[in-house]
Automatic annotation (TrEMBL):
Family annotation (PANTHER family): HTH-TYPE TRANSCRIPTIONAL REGULATOR YODB, TRANSCRIPTIONAL REGULATOR, MARR FAMILY
UniProt entry keywords in alphabetical sequence: DNA-binding, Transcription, Transcription regulation
Top-level taxon of the source organism: Bacteria
Designated name of the protein: HxlR family transcriptional regulator
A Pfam family that the UniProt record links to this protein: HxlR
InterPro entries: ArsR-like_HTH, HTH_HxlR, WH-like_DNA-bd_sf, WH_DNA-bd_sf
Domain HTH hxlR-type: 23-121
């Protein structure tokens, strides 16, 4: 029997299915694994940060994108926001317990990717060379 190209996976003990178009877990997965979400979550694993500290740490993120990312992660219960009524106002962001678990899993993937870059770069070079620079 031939193996299907994309076998259906069912986890009967889980009430959500990220592969289903309308499942809310898909949106959370996008928030956590998108470029800015994953970098923000992993940066916050180092400890609480103020907005501008995060912006400096996550090099290249715009103020608007970081703000949108933090709002989405806060809504999902991954990040908490603590606003101090000082002058000027002080706002700290930190991971919730759920966020720390997400960050730990993301950091494993990030470290794996960083450690695999020699192989990735060699594969890119081989691919680009075989396609005549297209």
């Amino acid at each position: 029997m031939e193996k299907p190209l994309c076998p259906e996976t069912t986890y009967t003990d889980l009430p959500f299915d990220v592969y289903a178009r309308t499942c809310p877990s898909r949106e959370t997965l996008e928030h956590v694994t998108g470029r800015w979400g994953s970098l923000t979550v992993s940066a916050l694993r180092e400890g609480p940060c103020r907005f501008n500290e995060l912006r400096r740490r996550v090099d290249g993120v715009s103020e608007k994108m970081l703000s949108q990312t933090l709002h989405a992660l806060e809504r999902d219960g991954i990040v908490s926001r603590d606003a101090q009524p000082t002058n000027p106002p002080r706002v700290d962001y930190e991971l919730t317990p759920l966020g720390r678990e997400v960050a730990d899993r993301l950091l494993s993937l990030i470290h794996f990717v960083e450690g695999s870059m020699p192989e990735v770069l060699a594969a890119r070079e081989s691919y680009d060379g075989s396609r005549g620079g297209r």
